[in-house]
Here is the input.
Amino acid sequence: MHIWVDADACPNFIKEILLRAAMKRKIDTTFVANKYLTLPASPHVAAMRVGQGFDVVDDTIAELVQAGDLVITADIPLAAKVIERGGTGLNPRGELYTEENISARLTMRNMLDELRSTGVVTGGPAPLSLADRNAFANQLDRFLTAQARVQG
Here is the structure.
Protein backbone atom coordinates (compact mmCIF):
# COMPACT_ATOMS: atom_id res chain seq x y z
CA MET A 1 0.00 0.00 0.00
CA HIS A 2 1.08 3.52 -0.81
CA ILE A 3 -0.41 6.79 0.39
CA TRP A 4 -0.74 9.54 -2.21
CA VAL A 5 -1.50 13.08 -1.06
CA ASP A 6 -3.13 15.76 -3.21
CA ALA A 7 -0.82 18.23 -1.49
CA ASP A 8 -1.69 21.53 -3.19
CA ALA A 9 -4.84 21.99 -1.13
CA CYS A 10 -3.98 19.77 1.83
CA PRO A 11 -4.13 21.64 5.16
CA ASN A 12 -0.87 21.71 7.12
CA PHE A 13 -2.27 19.88 10.13
CA ILE A 14 -3.37 17.03 7.83
CA LYS A 15 0.16 16.89 6.38
CA GLU A 16 1.55 16.63 9.91
CA ILE A 17 -0.77 13.75 10.78
CA LEU A 18 0.21 11.96 7.56
CA LEU A 19 3.93 12.49 8.14
CA ARG A 20 3.71 11.03 11.65
CA ALA A 21 1.72 8.03 10.38
CA ALA A 22 4.10 7.38 7.47
CA MET A 23 7.19 7.43 9.64
CA LYS A 24 5.68 5.52 12.57
CA ARG A 25 4.10 2.79 10.43
CA LYS A 26 6.79 2.82 7.71
CA ILE A 27 4.29 3.43 4.91
CA ASP A 28 5.53 5.00 1.71
CA THR A 29 3.77 8.33 1.30
CA THR A 30 4.10 10.73 -1.62
CA PHE A 31 2.96 14.34 -1.51
CA VAL A 32 2.14 15.46 -5.06
CA ALA A 33 2.01 19.20 -5.76
CA ASN A 34 2.72 21.74 -8.47
CA LYS A 35 4.86 23.76 -6.07
CA TYR A 36 7.96 23.02 -4.08
CA LEU A 37 7.29 21.22 -0.78
CA THR A 38 9.58 20.96 2.22
CA LEU A 39 9.25 17.62 3.97
CA PRO A 40 11.32 15.93 6.69
CA ALA A 41 13.97 13.46 5.61
CA SER A 42 12.56 9.96 5.75
CA PRO A 43 12.88 6.86 3.59
CA HIS A 44 9.07 6.64 3.64
CA VAL A 45 8.19 10.22 2.65
CA ALA A 46 8.65 11.83 -0.76
CA ALA A 47 7.58 14.96 -2.57
CA MET A 48 6.71 14.90 -6.25
CA ARG A 49 6.55 18.22 -8.02
CA VAL A 50 4.52 18.25 -11.23
CA GLY A 51 3.92 20.96 -13.82
CA GLN A 52 1.46 23.80 -13.53
CA GLY A 53 -1.95 23.45 -15.07
CA PHE A 54 -5.52 22.48 -14.39
CA ASP A 55 -5.78 18.98 -12.85
CA VAL A 56 -2.09 18.11 -13.42
CA VAL A 57 -1.72 16.94 -9.80
CA ASP A 58 -5.00 15.00 -9.95
CA ASP A 59 -4.12 13.37 -13.28
CA THR A 60 -0.68 12.35 -11.98
CA ILE A 61 -2.12 10.73 -8.88
CA ALA A 62 -4.87 8.99 -10.88
CA GLU A 63 -2.22 7.59 -13.21
CA LEU A 64 0.08 6.33 -10.43
CA VAL A 65 -2.43 4.95 -7.90
CA GLN A 66 -2.73 1.19 -7.68
CA ALA A 67 -5.28 -1.13 -6.12
CA GLY A 68 -5.07 -0.96 -2.34
CA ASP A 69 -3.52 2.53 -2.24
CA LEU A 70 -4.96 5.38 -0.21
CA VAL A 71 -5.34 8.88 -1.66
CA ILE A 72 -5.83 11.91 0.55
CA THR A 73 -7.94 14.45 -1.33
CA ALA A 74 -11.00 16.64 -1.07
CA ASP A 75 -11.39 16.43 -4.86
CA ILE A 76 -14.36 14.17 -5.57
CA PRO A 77 -13.63 13.58 -9.29
CA LEU A 78 -10.09 12.48 -8.33
CA ALA A 79 -11.55 10.20 -5.65
CA ALA A 80 -13.82 8.65 -8.29
CA LYS A 81 -10.81 7.90 -10.53
CA VAL A 82 -8.95 6.41 -7.55
CA ILE A 83 -11.86 4.10 -6.76
CA GLU A 84 -12.05 3.01 -10.41
CA ARG A 85 -8.43 1.87 -10.05
CA GLY A 86 -9.11 -0.07 -6.84
CA GLY A 87 -7.89 2.52 -4.35
CA THR A 88 -9.62 4.35 -1.53
CA GLY A 89 -9.98 8.08 -0.99
CA LEU A 90 -9.97 9.93 2.32
CA ASN A 91 -10.84 13.60 2.61
CA PRO A 92 -9.47 16.01 5.23
CA ARG A 93 -12.75 15.82 7.16
CA GLY A 94 -12.23 12.11 7.78
CA GLU A 95 -14.73 10.82 5.26
CA LEU A 96 -13.78 7.76 3.22
CA TYR A 97 -14.70 7.72 -0.45
CA THR A 98 -15.67 4.16 -1.38
CA GLU A 99 -17.45 2.28 -4.15
CA GLU A 100 -20.60 2.51 -2.03
CA ASN A 101 -20.69 6.30 -1.71
CA ILE A 102 -18.68 7.87 -4.53
CA SER A 103 -21.54 7.96 -7.03
CA ALA A 104 -23.77 9.97 -4.67
CA ARG A 105 -20.88 12.30 -3.76
CA LEU A 106 -20.08 12.89 -7.43
CA THR A 107 -23.72 13.56 -8.28
CA MET A 108 -24.03 16.11 -5.46
CA ARG A 109 -20.75 17.79 -6.43
CA ASN A 110 -21.84 18.06 -10.07
CA MET A 111 -25.25 19.47 -9.09
CA LEU A 112 -23.66 22.16 -6.89
CA ASP A 113 -21.12 22.96 -9.61
CA GLU A 114 -23.95 23.42 -12.11
CA LEU A 115 -25.86 25.68 -9.69
CA ARG A 116 -22.76 27.82 -9.18
CA SER A 117 -22.25 28.12 -12.95
CA THR A 118 -25.79 29.51 -13.33
CA GLY A 119 -25.12 32.17 -10.70
CA VAL A 120 -26.76 30.54 -7.72
CA VAL A 121 -24.65 31.14 -4.65
CA THR A 122 -24.30 27.83 -2.85
CA GLY A 123 -21.59 28.81 -0.39
CA GLY A 124 -18.56 26.73 0.28
CA PRO A 125 -17.72 24.16 2.88
CA ALA A 126 -17.27 25.23 6.47
CA PRO A 127 -13.68 25.72 7.63
CA LEU A 128 -12.03 22.59 8.99
CA SER A 129 -12.56 22.25 12.72
CA LEU A 130 -10.84 20.42 15.52
CA ALA A 131 -13.55 17.76 15.20
CA ASP A 132 -12.65 17.37 11.50
CA ARG A 133 -8.96 16.99 12.40
CA ASN A 134 -9.81 14.30 14.95
CA ALA A 135 -12.16 12.56 12.52
CA PHE A 136 -9.39 12.49 9.90
CA ALA A 137 -6.77 11.13 12.33
CA ASN A 138 -9.18 8.47 13.63
CA GLN A 139 -10.30 7.37 10.16
CA LEU A 140 -6.70 7.21 8.94
CA ASP A 141 -5.74 5.09 11.94
CA ARG A 142 -8.71 2.73 11.42
CA PHE A 143 -7.90 2.37 7.71
CA LEU A 144 -4.18 1.73 8.27
CA THR A 145 -4.87 -0.73 11.09
CA ALA A 146 -7.32 -2.66 8.91
CA GLN A 147 -4.80 -2.72 6.03
CA ALA A 148 -2.06 -3.99 8.36
CA ARG A 149 -4.33 -6.85 9.45
CA VAL A 150 -5.05 -7.78 5.83
CA GLN A 151 -1.38 -7.68 4.84
CA GLY A 152 0.08 -9.19 7.94
Notes: The radius of gyration is 15 Å. Helices lie at 12-25, 56-64, 76-84, 102-117, 130-151. Residues 25 and 144 are 9 Å apart (CA to CA).
